[in-house]
């Protein structure tokens, strides 16, 4: 089990977060003593749920005491690139016996260390050595639309996180935007945020809260969709200047205007729920649109015709 967010995705289909947590608990409640459950040691809710299984428990996380612990996390840069373009994340992995360095290319954010640690824990169940598991994750690359770094027009960088969005995932993406510097000193950090869907009664609060966070890490905020206006409200309440906020109803309209707004050296985070089709913005702003089927999500004919 990886994470239980305070406002879980798809919560509008349940009576509330607690019912979502209870449903997920059923995944491990019925397991016997011969089974193994792998839990995120840093998530208090998950560790509490772990008390209700008879299975053997392995844990992972950044906290001391996890069976597989990550430490010394950081973003490393491309050595051959004078602009210092980020290439991926690095961290150390420690178990009860050993400690080895790990790298994941074209992945960004400490949250990406968690699935790597979970995979390493799974490998240990099947007898894999720690160093062998780390070597395997070093060749992993996140799928399109999952915080992939893409070169944009006008010498910009795009953090393409357009596959989907939820409060916890957006908070992690904004943290990455905070961590990565623009490719030039004059560059700005631009958060392009689309609606987060399926949040039910939590919709307004969640958007406002994330708008507050966006205000702290970005120079320009662009919102896309009717719900995304609450990003703007949260940002303004946090002291963000109205003249640095742009609002759009559709991704197509946002793409039109962003072509005019962006300047050389900017870095953009583009993220929204699947229904907002935020990849259309990435397609318009990427430096090599001929590679869209390779680099972007939702590029098959079914999606292209929607």
UniProtKB/TrEMBL annotation:
<dbReference type="InterPro" id="IPR004101">
    <property type="entry name" value="Mur_ligase_C"/>
</dbReference>
<keyword id="KW-0547">Nucleotide-binding</keyword>
<dbReference type="GO" id="GO:0005524">
    <property type="term" value="F:ATP binding"/>
</dbReference>
<dbReference type="InterPro" id="IPR013221">
    <property type="entry name" value="Mur_ligase_cen"/>
</dbReference>
<keyword id="KW-0067">ATP-binding</keyword>
<dbReference type="Pfam" id="PF08245">
    <property type="entry name" value="Mur_ligase_M"/>
</dbReference>
<dbReference type="InterPro" id="IPR036565">
    <property type="entry name" value="Mur-like_cat_sf"/>
</dbReference>
<keyword id="KW-0436">Ligase</keyword>
<dbReference type="InterPro" id="IPR051046">
    <property type="entry name" value="MurCDEF_CellWall_CoF430Synth"/>
</dbReference>
<feature type="domain" description="Mur ligase C-terminal">
    <location>
        <begin position="145"/>
        <end position="273"/>
    </location>
</feature>
<dbReference type="GO" id="GO:0016881">
    <property type="term" value="F:acid-amino acid ligase activity"/>
</dbReference>
<feature type="domain" description="Mur ligase central">
    <location>
        <begin position="9"/>
        <end position="122"/>
    </location>
</feature>
<protein>
    <submittedName>
        <fullName>UDP-N-acetylmuramoyl-tripeptide-D-alanyl-D-alanine ligase</fullName>
    </submittedName>
</protein>
<dbReference type="Pfam" id="PF02875">
    <property type="entry name" value="Mur_ligase_C"/>
</dbReference>
<dbReference type="InterPro" id="IPR036615">
    <property type="entry name" value="Mur_ligase_C_dom_sf"/>
</dbReference>
């Amino acid at each position: 089990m990886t994470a239980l967010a305070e406002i879980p995705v798809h919560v509008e289909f349940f009576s509330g977060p607690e019912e979502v947590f209870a449903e997920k608990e059923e995944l491990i409640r019925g397991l016997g003593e011969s089974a193994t459950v792998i839990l995120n040691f840093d998530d208090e809710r998950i560790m509490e749920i772990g008390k209700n299984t008879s299975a053997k428990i392995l844990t992972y996380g950044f906290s001391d005491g996890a069976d597989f612990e990550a430490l010394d996390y950081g973003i490393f840069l491309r050595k051959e690139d004078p602009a210092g373009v980020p290439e991926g994340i690095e961290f150390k992995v420690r178990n009860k016996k050993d400690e080895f360095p790990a790298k994941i290319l074209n992945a960004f954010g400490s949250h990406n260390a968690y699935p790597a640690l979970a995979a390493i824990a799974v490998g240990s169940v099947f007898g894999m050595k720690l160093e062998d598991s780390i070597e395997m994750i070093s060749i992993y690359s996140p799928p399109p639309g999952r915080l992939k770094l893409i070169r944009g027009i006008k010498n910009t960088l795009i953090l393409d996180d357009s596959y989907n969005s939820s409060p916890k995932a957006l908070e992690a993406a904004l943290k990455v935007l905070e961590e990565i510097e623009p490719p030039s000193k004059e560059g700005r950090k631009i958060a392009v945020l689309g609606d987060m869907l399926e949040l039910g009664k939590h919709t307004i609060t969640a958007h406002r809260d994330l708008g507050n966070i966006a205000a702290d890490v970005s120079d320009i905020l662009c919102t896309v969709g009717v719900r995304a206006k609450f990003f703007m409200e949260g940002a303004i309440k946090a002291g963000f200047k109205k003249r640095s906020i742009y609002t759009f109803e559709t991704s197509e309209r946002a793409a039109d205007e962003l072509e005019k707004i962006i300047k050389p050296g900017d870095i953009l985070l583009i993220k929204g729920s699947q229904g907002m089709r935020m990849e259309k913005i990435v397609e318009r702003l990427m430096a090599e649109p001929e590679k869209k089927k390779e680099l972007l999500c939702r590029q098959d004919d079914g999606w292209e015709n929607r």
